[in-house]
Amino acid sequence: MIRTNWAAMLGIAGDDRLGLGERLRRYPWSLVALLLSIAILGLIILYSAVGGRENIDLFWGQGLRLVVGLLLLFAITLFVGEKLFRRYTYLFYGISLLLLLAVAMGGTVGMGARRWLVLGSFRFQPSELMKVGVILALARYFHDRGVTTQLGWKELWMPAILIMAPVGLIAKQPDLGTALLVAAVGGVVIFVAGLSWRGVVAGLVVLGASGPLVWSNLHDYQRRRVATLFSPEQDPLGSGYHIIQSKIAVGSGGVFGKGFLEGSQSHLDFLPERHTDFIFSVLAEEWGFLGTMLLILLYGLTILRGWIIASAAHDRFGILTASGLTALFGIQVVVNVGMVIGIFPVVGIPLPLVSYGGSSMMTVLLAMALLIHVDIHSKQHGRAV
């Protein structure tokens, strides 16, 4: 009879013998508390954004996703060995890439974009998985090569392929915001891996020079979004409507806000996408400046905790993985908040753990599970944070 060695399959064999009690002792409960605080605050905001009991199913659905995501987080961090996700990073990346190809060939169209795969009642965006997949693949690539000096061009051709393959597929959906996000977090991993400032400047020059080519290939609605950033009042009932209503909601909240469930812009249906991309505007209108600062403080502490974990990671893979995951979390916060107050174009980047959406929620919690995993095993090797 063949016996399955579950310990070996989960990567708990060999030099990774942390028991459950030991993992719990080393667990970064402060980070979990921050994530829970953000998620619970997000559910409260979402309840108001969807109209309270009018659309209560959306609220309970998001709550269920949070519970499932937390169970996934604890399962990964408590029962999976240190080397498992490193061993299968390329497989994870490859599956994510195949799912993006599946979207391109037969994905579900919604709001003019082909971004989703539907399996029965289950609908998800493979581009969300690729946000994590590209980070893990790049971290594995640089870890295996052990490059510790400044990177040259010959070390960058493969990372460029790993980044540009999914970026091209995501941009074609079209989803320019997520494509740029994947490219940005990939760039962060390359920079932490050893890209010199000279290389950064050279990359920015190349990016600037390619601007006209990129502009000529944008869809009309994408060009309008960029133009709207500078003058939304030119089309107040069209491309400028979202950002104008968002600014009104944010500004009308004042210091203390109008009160829970009392936002006029959201509850009178002036504010579009108020439970997804523009949920921060609902918070600003009802909770005011103090409410937004509370959420931003929680985000800031989470990002700081992530960078501390990255700086204390015991190997190159951990450093690059934690850096990329923290950058992914932070960039999404900055872009979403900047978008709703008119600093950035409207690009459809969700607010982590707050915006409604199952794919986004699960991806953020998967990323945080991997970040916690790095922290636990850094402590195993004597680098406590």
Describe this structure in words.
- The structure is a single chain.
- The chain has 385 residues and is mainly alpha-helical.
- It is built from 17 helices and 3 strands.
- It has helices at 6-9, 20-25, 29-49, 56-79, 84-87, 89-106, 126-145, 157-171, 176-193, 197-209, 211-216, 220-230, 241-252, 264-267, 279-312, 316-340, 358-380, and strands spanning 108-110, 113-119, 122-124.
- Strands 1-2-3 form a 3-stranded antiparallel sheet.
- Strand 1 and strand 2 (113-119) form a beta hairpin.
- Helix 16 (316-340) runs antiparallel to helix 17.
Features:
single chain; 2 domains; globular; mainly alpha
Rg of Cα set = 21 Å
- The amount of beta strand, in percent, is under 5%
SSE ordering: HHHHHHEEEHHHHHHHHHHH
**What fraction, in percent, of the residue positions are helical?**
55-70%
The residue ranges in which pLDDT falls below 50 over 5 or more consecutive positions are 11-15
Q: How are the strands of the largest sheet arranged?
A: 1-2-3
Concise description?
With 385 residues, the chain is mainly alpha-helical.
List strands and helices in order, with pairings:
Blueprint: H1 6-9, H2 20-25, H3 29-49, H4 56-79, H5 84-87, H6 89-106, E1 108-110, E2 113-119, E3 122-124, H7 126-145, H8 157-171, H9 176-193, H10 197-209, H11 211-216, H12 220-230, H13 241-252, H14 264-267, H15 279-312, H16 316-340, H17 358-380
